[in-house]
What does this fold into?
Amino acid sequence: MKRRTMLAGVAASAAASAVAPAARAQADKTKIVFWHAMTGANGEEINRIARDFNAAQAAVELEPVFKGSYPETLTAAIAAWRAGQAPHVVQVFEVGTGSMLAAGPAVKQVWQLIQETGAKIDPNAYLPAVRGYYSLADGRLASAPLNSSTPVMWYNKNAFETAGLDPEKPPQTWQEFVIAARVLKEKWASKGQDQVASTSAWLTWVQLETYSAIHNVPYATKADGFGGLDAELKLNGPAQVKHLQRLLDMAKEGTFKYAGRDGAPDPLFYTGQAAIGFGSSSGRADIVRNAKFKWAAAVLPYDPEVAQGPSELDTLIDSVDVDTLSLRETFAFLKKLKTADRRPGPVNSIIGGASLWTMTAPNRTPAEYKAVAGFLEFIGRPDQVALYHQHTGYVPVTQAGYELSKQQGYYEKTPGADVAIKSLTRGTVTENSKGLRLGRLPEIRNIIYEEVEKALQGQQGAQQALDSAVTRGNVVLRAFEKSVKS
Amino acid sequence: MERRTIFPGWKLPAALVLPQLALTVVFFLWPAGQAIWSSLTQADPFGIRTQFVGLDNFTDLFADPLYLDSIARSVFFSAAVAALSMGVALALAVAADREISFRGAYRVLLVWPYAIAPAMAAVLWILLLHPQIGLVGRWLNGIGVAWDYKLNGAQAMLVVILASAWKQISYNFIFFLAGLQSIPRGVIEAARMDGAKGFFRFRTVVLPLLMPTVFFLLVVNLVYASFDTFGTIQALTGGGPGKATETLVVKVYRDGVVNLDVGSSSAQSVVLMLGVIALTALQFRFLGRRSDSG
It folds into this structure.
């Protein structure tokens, strides 16, 4: 008995001495935890980033943890913070930004992190449409952009050919789109079972939020919420009502199919059931993997009758530097002016996706914040931004990452991969195209889905649907305002 | 015969009761107390600013026509689920109570659905009824029925009722079968001798003797339909389209977990808690009275 105990003791101490050096090396490293909401190929990419980061330096050990869907991750982070156990970094979807900004002591915004740790993060390195979404009204960066996407129009080139449409010329305006959809229905969709001309994923994000931004019409007062918590929804304006009515009419005549909320309609496009599918640019990986036909992406169509952005004429005038023009150039310019479209045009689309927030906890040390700062610096490096962009279909969030991808010849190898960037950088960012800064936006999106679904069932028209969405949404906004102000 | 054990002193009985009490306090009284407290406050999601608002959350709730709709919807849903699952289970139990071959096998098969997790049950029903990928769904569209429960509220309600009721049939079946088997054969024989036949015999002799089981199951089914169907509904329709299948418990989740409005969500939980307490009290009263007289 005694001998056995002794033997066990020896074995234990031998084991202890064997693991000790490794354990000591582990203990020297600052450990930080990163909660994310990425699944499938995108989830593997997060693990790739963590591996590369851990290999690139010796001081910090980053542990990525998958916490479920975006809302689940946010809820888990909030619960963890309340228990004093918040992760160091958490990925929060873009519509959670308003709630995170109101989180006060629970988060350390990027500008604070820069102040405290001297991190080398330059807000101006990010694309304006990306930076705008995650910055305070005065331009200070609040969270670190990671995965940003934007709505694009995916279309099936084979279907276009069958229907006799030019596959290199996707519809540019909504008027053209309606006609193209009718042709597709008649000459392509009617020939197969369950085929439909068009569908849209993320209806609220694509067809209302981004639609409003592109047409430079307000979604909410106070500069879409950037100007204050007392913002009110304005998404029942004539432009949005006209567009929703258009979609309702198309659904009725069978040229548009509503196939559920959020990402649910995505498979309709890549299985070949829908000839045109609106969706996130980040759907690229899935389309590459599944689509058995020729496809391409295009920027979203716009409606010249309601657009409020600068016209072709305005853009032309803005682009010219009067001091350097020769007489010959001046005449050429005047000629162009003569034919330029004077109708208001579209501006940039807005982003979706998520950003990284630094969270606080009672026992967190400056070394840990420094480690987080190091990680955020790392993911903002041009090579990392370019790699992430090319692996996933999210846009490069920094200008440098975009330039690097160009240099590497990525866009020649994969034509159309820059459609999202072109869409995000079209025109100049206006008050209405900066993004949305509204509390409890996920809840408001659900309200809109509910009202639109009722309209699709024929219970109400577009005006009534958006009116009640605004009324109900404003109640949510007031409740949010009350809860963060008191 | 008196079968009561008298303990000397109070220490041993206290020690014996303590574990149960501790469980009740930790897993019921404490969280319930917290729910009641947060139903009286309004807080931001992070709980940084919490203020006591009295009964504001409750008055807001009952002033909200959408909440009242949700109550009506839940009552309809629970009644439909209870009626359907109990009706089918009773029919199956009566059938399985006969002298037929492979009786044992039938009984086992009928109990299986109870062992399926709610989310998996929902997936099975999706594979059947989905308008694009479901067997039945595609068939319905093929023969000209405009079947799309993702857009049609009435169809969505039908789907969640079917799926929820199906899961509960097994449970009801076990109790009905046991209830049927505990009816003395002599009573049935006597009825038969008196010339009572088929459905008449069932209605006048079997059913009254089965009433305690029926009542017990009614309460259990109502509680099941009100609370345990969250997983099924969430996986099938998520409460949509519109709010067509948003029952009270789905709304609690939506407001608390997705919308992070803890105050209102807690108030809704408290309302639900009162509902269960009422149902349970009713059950105790009724069953208690029966066993007194019996």
Remarks:
- Chain A touches chain B through 38 residues (CB under 8 Å).
